[in-house]
Write a structure and sequence with these properties.
Layout lengths: L7 H4 L3 E4 L5 E3 L5 E3 L21 H16 L1 H12 L23 H8 L4 E4 L8 H13 L4 E6 L2 H4 L8 E6 L14 E5 L2 H6 L3 E2 L6 H4 L4 E5 L4 H7 L4 H4 L6
Parallel strand pairs: 1-4, 4-5, 5-6, 6-7, 7-9, 8-9
Antiparallel strand pairs: 2-3
Length: about 250
């Protein structure tokens, strides 16, 4: 069974996804489970609770991913490592074509990774680190596959700040959660804006050209343009996620 997927946009950048069902889900045995424990206002605007994510076959695939972790986490971890050791995740030896303006001079690991043509895994196209043991399993996976770059947007601010991480494990705090107040000005974080003009006006830099920019940009202030979902955009009324839940730090 293939664990990691990639849509056409991510595949061209050699990025693969690991996806859980978003927010609250009912498991086959009737249990209710929350994959995003510290989701805040963002839960009402989540793209992963809309469109193709809600197709029955897609939703079931994401629930199956979650059940693999809950039912047999050791086997899931070993299966993930085995998949990441296959040829398609190995460095190509051909330097990556980085977006214009990217500067990796401050980060030796990212320099080497890009020069070797390394692959990337976005942990959680939807869902989040729902507990510490699950987070630490991803850290162990990253330690065993040092030539793959792992990255994640997360609202688990307090949890992520507890640990030290290998160079190939990167995280970006994502606003709109209940722990926004724990995000400090120097922390790498992402905010969702109505459009790219609003991103620039706020002094952020957009990752719209390539999702890897959330890691590759030298700035800690990453802007994400909102998905074109009409009823969500109408409800946001021109605000950014951090304004949906006021945060004095950002």
């Amino acid at each position: 069974m293939t664990l990691l997927r990639a849509n056409s946009d991510l595949r061209k950048h050699r990025i693969w996804n690991w996806t859980l069902p978003a927010w609250l889900v009912t498991l086959p045995d009737g249990r209710r489970f929350n994959t995003c424990p510290h989701a805040g206002p963002c839960a009402q605007y989540c793209y992963a609770r809309n469109g193709t994510y809600m197709f029955s076959n897609v939703r079931q695939a994401h629930i199956t991913n979650l059940m693999r972790i809950l039912d047999d986490p050791n086997q899931w971890q070993e299966d993930m490592v085995a998949e990441l050791l296959t040829k398609k995740f190995r460095p190509t030896g051909i330097p990556r074509q980085l977006p214009e303006g990217t500067d990796l001079s401050h980060d030796r690991y990212l320099q080497n990774w890009a020069e070797q043509g390394g692959a990337a895994v976005r942990i959680h196209d939807s869902g989040d680190f729902f507990d510490e043991q699950y987070l630490l399993r991803w850290v162990l996976i990253a330690e065993r596959i040092p030539d793959v770059l792992f990255y994640a947007y997360t609202k688990e601010v307090e949890m992520l700040k507890k640990y030290q991480y290998p160079y190939n494990f990167r995280y970006i705090f994502s606003t709109g959660g209940t722990q926004d107040h724990l995000i400090e000005p120097g922390d790498r974080h992402a905010d969702v804006f109505p459009n790219n003009d609003a991103i620039v006006a706020a002094g952020y830099e957009s990752q719209d050209a390539n999702d890897l920019l959330c890691v590759l940009l030298k700035t800690n202030k990453v802007g994400i343009p909102a998905n074109n979902i009409r009823h969500y955009n109408k409800r946001m009324a021109g605000r950014r996620f951090s304004e949906l839940h006021p945060n004095k730090n950002l």
